[in-house]
Amino acid sequence: MSLLPMSAPTCPRRVGILTGGGDCPGLNAVIRAVTQSLLRQCGAEVIGIEDGFAGLLCEPPRARRLDWDAVSGILLLGGTILGSSNRANPLDSAQATALTLANVRRLGLDALVVIGGDGSMTIAHALAQQGLAIVGVPKTIDNDLYGCERSFGFDTAVATVTEALERIQTTAHSHRRVMIVETMGRWAGWIALEAGLAAAADAILLPELDYDLPALARHCQARLLRERYSVICIGEGAKALGGTATLQATTWPMTDPAAGAIAPLRLGGVAHRLNQALQPLLQAEVRATVLGHVQRGGSPTPFDRVLATLYGNQAAQLLLQGHFGRMVTLSGGQLGHIALAEVAQQQRTVPPGHPLLQAAQQIGVCLGQPD
Ligand SMILES: Nc1ncnc2c1ncn2[C@@H]1O[C@H](COP(=O)(O)OP(=O)(O)O)[C@@H](O)[C@H]1O
Ligand SMILES: O=P(O)(O)OC[C@H]1O[C@](O)(COP(=O)(O)O)[C@@H](O)[C@@H]1O
Ligand SMILES: [Mg+2]
């Protein structure tokens, strides 16, 4: 069945736009750029779907028209004016998929822009396979989208975590403590790695590199004798050698959690677990801080505002050129696009031997590896 043409030689008349998955700074900048670009270049009507795919999974669908006024003044705003959901999933059942497609028809949409992360792009790909004309825009603070070297929202999250680490450092110094700071990022360690480097963390522990507890303890103990304190920056998906990841909940009854990295688990609390394990091995007090959703909130950095604007405009260009089933990308510093088929069910984690890992190790940051 082909609902809509996979490539359109002419301008779309009516374009839907939605934000899916966890929110992040810069979503509004994308919504603004897509809307302004389409209004200015071809006068298409832009329809904002409310609360991500949830807005397409109800009867009637929840959506509203976006015009110049609706997107005026939103560039600097965190979150998303449209709302988002990281629960609603059109792939949950055949009925959910059918309802989503029917609602797209009911709204009279020629095309849909999906701004989301790996989960949303997996959904977008499946809908594109059903004949929907879709363009994806990579969003996530985790920076874990395959084929794209930088998702907007990541820079802002790194800035927030960096500031938090700096603040932790001063109190760590005062009290001769070992401070553990847990970042978000799911199964990718990008946030912990970049913020840890930016704030001179003494140890950086990533989901991609299981840590050796005795080696970490030795590193902290040696530092305590020389420098009074240690700051450990740990990604939420990290685990000890031979251990398991720390889960808050298995939130969705969906795909097999053990099978794939993008399984719908809610991570969190590894800092507290590490605190308990590390404390008996050290002659200093250990404290844990879980930064949580503060990392996703607030106004985007100038970098993210620019990146999100470029991505939104690029999405509009893809629509105008009739390039559907594609996600906007940045590769080698150049804007481009990649097939949703390549992005779906994939994740971009920190590869072994990445230059940032090498540099961290060479300047003496502990990555939790056995001596
Ligand atoms: N492997 C998957 N296959 C299909 N749908 C998924 C998968 N992982 C997540 N989803 C769904 O995608 C949506 C967004 O996922 P999530 O990972 O929270 O956000 P993001 O799009 O930012 O990655 C949710 O509705 C979730 O149920
Ligand atoms: O808001 P929730 O449900 O607690 O989700 C938390 C998760 O969402 C994120 O903030 C962002 O992930 P996504 O971009 O995949 O939505 C993760 O870093 C974190 O593990
Ligand atoms: Mg994701």
UniProtKB/TrEMBL annotation:
<dbReference type="InterPro" id="IPR012003">
    <property type="entry name" value="ATP_PFK_prok-type"/>
</dbReference>
<feature type="active site" description="Proton acceptor">
    <location>
        <position position="142"/>
    </location>
</feature>
<dbReference type="GO" id="GO:0016208">
    <property type="term" value="F:AMP binding"/>
</dbReference>
<comment type="function">
    <text>Catalyzes the phosphorylation of D-fructose 6-phosphate to fructose 1,6-bisphosphate by ATP, the first committing step of glycolysis.</text>
</comment>
<comment type="subunit">
    <text>Homodimer or homotetramer.</text>
</comment>
<dbReference type="GO" id="GO:0006002">
    <property type="term" value="P:fructose 6-phosphate metabolic process"/>
</dbReference>
<protein>
    <recommendedName>
        <fullName>ATP-dependent 6-phosphofructokinase</fullName>
        <ecNumber>2.7.1.11</ecNumber>
    </recommendedName>
</protein>
<feature type="binding site">
    <location>
        <begin position="117"/>
        <end position="120"/>
    </location>
    <ligand>
        <name>ATP</name>
    </ligand>
</feature>
<dbReference type="GO" id="GO:0005945">
    <property type="term" value="C:6-phosphofructokinase complex"/>
</dbReference>
<keyword id="KW-0067">ATP-binding</keyword>
<keyword id="KW-0324">Glycolysis</keyword>
<keyword id="KW-0963">Cytoplasm</keyword>
<dbReference type="InterPro" id="IPR015912">
    <property type="entry name" value="Phosphofructokinase_CS"/>
</dbReference>
<keyword id="KW-0460">Magnesium</keyword>
<dbReference type="GO" id="GO:0061621">
    <property type="term" value="P:canonical glycolysis"/>
</dbReference>
<dbReference type="InterPro" id="IPR022953">
    <property type="entry name" value="ATP_PFK"/>
</dbReference>
<dbReference type="InterPro" id="IPR012829">
    <property type="entry name" value="Phosphofructokinase_III"/>
</dbReference>
<dbReference type="GO" id="GO:0005524">
    <property type="term" value="F:ATP binding"/>
</dbReference>
<comment type="similarity">
    <text>Belongs to the phosphofructokinase type A (PFKA) family. Mixed-substrate PFK group III subfamily.</text>
</comment>
<comment type="pathway">
    <text>Carbohydrate degradation; glycolysis; D-glyceraldehyde 3-phosphate and glycerone phosphate from D-glucose: step 3/4.</text>
</comment>
<dbReference type="GO" id="GO:0046872">
    <property type="term" value="F:metal ion binding"/>
</dbReference>
<dbReference type="GO" id="GO:0003872">
    <property type="term" value="F:6-phosphofructokinase activity"/>
</dbReference>
<feature type="binding site" description="in other chain">
    <location>
        <position position="236"/>
    </location>
    <ligand>
        <name>substrate</name>
    </ligand>
</feature>
<feature type="binding site">
    <location>
        <position position="287"/>
    </location>
    <ligand>
        <name>substrate</name>
    </ligand>
</feature>
<dbReference type="InterPro" id="IPR000023">
    <property type="entry name" value="Phosphofructokinase_dom"/>
</dbReference>
<feature type="site" description="Important for substrate specificity; cannot use PPi as phosphoryl donor">
    <location>
        <position position="119"/>
    </location>
</feature>
<feature type="binding site" description="in other chain">
    <location>
        <begin position="293"/>
        <end position="296"/>
    </location>
    <ligand>
        <name>substrate</name>
    </ligand>
</feature>
<dbReference type="GO" id="GO:0048029">
    <property type="term" value="F:monosaccharide binding"/>
</dbReference>
<dbReference type="GO" id="GO:0070095">
    <property type="term" value="F:fructose-6-phosphate binding"/>
</dbReference>
<dbReference type="Pfam" id="PF00365">
    <property type="entry name" value="PFK"/>
</dbReference>
<dbReference type="GO" id="GO:0042802">
    <property type="term" value="F:identical protein binding"/>
</dbReference>
<feature type="binding site">
    <location>
        <position position="118"/>
    </location>
    <ligand>
        <name>Mg(2+)</name>
    </ligand>
</feature>
<keyword id="KW-0547">Nucleotide-binding</keyword>
<feature type="binding site" description="in other chain">
    <location>
        <begin position="140"/>
        <end position="142"/>
    </location>
    <ligand>
        <name>substrate</name>
    </ligand>
</feature>
<keyword id="KW-0808">Transferase</keyword>
<keyword id="KW-0479">Metal-binding</keyword>
<feature type="binding site">
    <location>
        <begin position="87"/>
        <end position="88"/>
    </location>
    <ligand>
        <name>ATP</name>
    </ligand>
</feature>
<feature type="binding site">
    <location>
        <position position="177"/>
    </location>
    <ligand>
        <name>substrate</name>
    </ligand>
</feature>
<dbReference type="GO" id="GO:0047334">
    <property type="term" value="F:diphosphate-fructose-6-phosphate 1-phosphotransferase activity"/>
</dbReference>
<feature type="binding site">
    <location>
        <position position="22"/>
    </location>
    <ligand>
        <name>ATP</name>
    </ligand>
</feature>
<dbReference type="InterPro" id="IPR035966">
    <property type="entry name" value="PKF_sf"/>
</dbReference>
<feature type="domain" description="Phosphofructokinase">
    <location>
        <begin position="14"/>
        <end position="319"/>
    </location>
</feature>
